[in-house]
């Protein structure tokens, strides 16, 4: 025990006050934790929405790219068909001009040869056959040229027409032109006799 102060009943040292209990800031921690959780949830939702939007844009972009690629392929095919048709038209036009020139030359040659009635009759028969063959060739070549011109027109505006119908029309024109070429070959053979 501590010695007593000369004054009776007073302790030698003053008493220390009892330590105060510390208050914990629990309310602030709970509020901050709740705010942090809300921020994390909000960030997660925004991130999920951004990922979904990014995926949608990627799919849309891929679709447009496929469409552009198909359009470029169709255009290249149509341009190739157009160039082929133009080449065939040029060839057929040249054949028609050659045939017409040759018919005129042969008719003049044959006309000069016929002095007698028999020769003139043969010449007349020959000219009739040649004229008929020439008429068929001219008609066939004209049909071929007309068909090719229509085909070129259709190919220039191919987006307006069905691809299968354009292909079928192109095949029909090719058939007509093949027949014209065959008729021209037959005429050339007749002219060489």
Topology (elements, then pairings):
Elements: H1 26-113, H2 117-156, H3 163-192
Helix pairs in contact: 1-2, 1-3, 2-3
Keywords:
mainly alpha; rod-shaped; 3 helices; about 190 residues; about 80% helix
**What is the count of distinct domains?**
1
N-C termini distance: 159 Å
What radius of gyration results from the CA coordinates?
Answer: 51 Å
Biggest beta-sheet profile: none
Q: Strand-residue fraction? A: under 5%
Helix content: over 70%
How many H/I helices?
A: 3
In oligomeric terms, what are we looking at?
single chain
Describe this structure as you would to a colleague.
The chain is mostly helical and 193 residues long. The chain has one domain. The chain has helices at residues 26-113, 117-156, 163-192. The mean pLDDT is 81.
Short précis:
With 193 residues, the chain is an all-alpha fold. It is 82% helix and 0% strand. The protein contains 3 helices and no strands.
